[in-house]
Task: structure prediction
Amino acid sequence: MTMRTLRPSKPASGLNPGGSNTPGSAHSPPAEDVVVAGGGLVGKATALALAQVGLRVLLCGVRPAPAAPAQGYGQRVYAFNAASRRFLDSMRVWSQVPHSRVQPVARMQIAADGAALQFDAYAQGVEALAWIAESDALERALDLALQFERGARLVPWGVEQAQFDGAHWELTLADGSVARAGLLLGADGRQSRVRDWAGIGLRSKPYGQTGLVCNVRCAQPHGGTAYQAFTEDGVIALLPLADQDDDHQVSLVWSAPDALATSLCVAGAEGLVPRLQTHLEALGAAHLAPLAAVGEIGAWPLVLQRAHSLVAPGAALLGDAGHVIHPLAGHGLNLGLQDVQALAAVLAGRGEAQAIGDARVLRRYARARAEQVLALELATDGLHRLYAPDLAWLAPLRAFGLTGTNHLSPLKRLLAGYASGLSVMA
Ligand SMILES: Cc1cc2nc3c(=O)[nH]c(=O)nc-3n(C[C@H](O)[C@H](O)[C@H](O)COP(=O)(O)OP(=O)(O)OC[C@H]3O[C@@H](n4cnc5c(N)ncnc54)[C@H](O)[C@@H]3O)c2cc1C
Result:
């Protein structure tokens, strides 16, 4: 194993990296209040947020973020909404993401059936509609913040086995060491094992689409505009990346039917560009041509997934472990970060006599997240269905609806407000 811990730390009594594999005695207090399984963005944000409210956290399965590329951008790029940005700010993380790598979105254009819906940050009275940044840049900022957080301990090993005795979890890590805690958090992604260990069921529906991502160079500046179009080839989005001198790039997120995605992947990044260019007109982005691919294509099968509950005795799920939505609204990670914020608030606000894994406390977290998760699941799934190829006969009606919405400022303000996440997390 070549991974390393991010912060050298003395083994605590509940964790034995030396591998002697001696479980803590049933009577010894757990070394940590909380064990978080999953060192992705949501797991790192969870460990940081909980340590900042005074809890002792062990984060398992951590890899340090890759260094910034000398030129260009990492492949995974996210649109962060205002609620995520505010939360990351409050944890002193956002300020560590270099400004030069963050692109505020000034305008957003959503096109379908020859009609368009436009949002403008200025008209909405906000600083930006969203902020586009690389996953790795945010992860580097989280790594840095975690280094200074005494309450968080990070290990590279994943959780391999888990048992709950009604009050504490006993967790075996991949190096054979054993950890104990009163609360186990699953931030371990869509294939979550914590979900299984906690006995939480799952509803899952494949979309028959693959999310393709690739950075693309444009001939002209994008002007901070994000473009999205519903096309017969799936949903295509171009997210603007911060200009580096005269280099103008966008991050392509293409939710393509599986068969098309396979052929595009076989053709490779350069082969994908000609097909993309045929959609520039529909995107309202013809002025960006000619395009050139930068780097490789990344591909993710798209699913709609929802855990039956976000909580179980002594356990809770966050991020993709609890819910996976279609990326057409660019909200999956935002939902995950808002899970973290809600859980940290609930745990910090629990009564002195309440155990960390108290069922009433955890249910408060589940209730706090129910509305937003359901609303985004319904909205993204509804849009996906509405623009399905077999509903092409609805095109005139859809175009009428989109044009009508574009002329209704109060409705646009409502939509933009909801997308910002602030109305939910206020
Ligand atoms: C094409 C595409 C585009 C997207 N664009 C956006 C966007 O613009 N904005 C947005 O908000 N969201 C977006 N999303 C959604 C976003 O990618 C996910 O919601 C987010 O990455 C989920 O993060 P996570 O930390 O919950 O899970 P993951 O990133 O899957 O991380 C889970 C981690 O847990 C680890 N792990 C697994 N098992 C264990 C174990 N037993 N023990 C310890 N660790 C374990 C894994 O190794 C991994 O590191 C997009 C998704 C796709 C597919």
User: Anything to note?
Assistant: The chain is about 35% helix and 25% strand.
